[in-house]
Design brief:
Number of strands: 10
Order of helices and strands: EEEHEHEEEEEHEH
Distance between the termini: 21 Å
CATH class: Alpha Beta
Shape: globular
Oligomer: single chain
CATH topology: Ribosomal Protein S5, domain 2
Helix content: 25-40%
CATH superfamily: Imidazole glycerol phosphate dehydratase, domain 1
Strand content: 25-35%
Length: 194
């Protein structure tokens, strides 16, 4: 069974196209026009083991918000589509990921019920060409559009780049665990997810 999806979003602010394979090898081809977002998406793909292609054009002359948000919308939607009915998956995943002094924890439930809890304290307003608040916004939007419960906490850290990257690595590792196929039907006492 192929767990792949392609999705796109075209608005007056952005144009985003995504191709995703949950059973890939962690290869990313990403061009969003935002270097730091590209770095985070490459990190997400590499450590989750999913193959990800993202091509985005946005009104970055205004700011980075629309591009970051719409990338999260399309990636989350593609993730949900690729997961399908989620029969036979582990469903739950959790991970800690360090990056030097920073330590992040992510816990995910691929329950088809969206709930984001993302807690990252940044000292700077921007990390590269992305507003720090939009890092948090990306993860929250990914959870909503990906139909997952996602808890992300950066437990410690001084460097904002390290904190953001540790968070994305932890999310990636948790998703890798949760999407693993272990067999059987829907992993729920209800017999269905959602």
């Amino acid at each position: 069974m192929s767990r792949t999806a392609q999705s796109q979003r075209v608005t007056g602010e952005t144009r985003v196209a995504v191709s995703l394979d949950l059973d890939g090898t962690g290869v990313a081809t990403v061009d969003t026009g935002l270097g730091f977002l590209d770095h985070m998406l490459d990190t997400l793909a590499r450590h989750s083991g999913l193959d990800l292609e993202v091509a985005a054009e946005g009104d970055t002359d205004v700011d980075d918000h629309h591009t970051v948000e719409d990338c999260a919308i399309v990636i989350g939607g593609a993730f949900s589509e690729a997961l399908g009915g989620a029969d036979g998956i582990r469903r739950f995943g959790s991970a800690h990921a360090p990056l030097d002094e920073a330590l992040a924890r992510a816990v995910v439930d691929l329950s088809s019920r969206s709930w984001p809890e993302v807690h990252i304290s940044f000292a700077r307003d921007r990390i590269g060409d992305v507003a720090a608040e939009n890092i948090t916004h990306f993860l929250r939007t990914l959870a909503v559009e990906g139909r997952m419960t996602l808890h992300v906490d950066v437990l410690r850290g001084d460097n904002d780049h390290h904190k953001a990257e540790a968070a994305f690595k932890a999310v990636a590792l948790a998703l890798r665990e949760a999407t693993t196929v272990v067999g059987g039907g829907a992993p729920s006492t209800k017999g269905v997810l959602g």
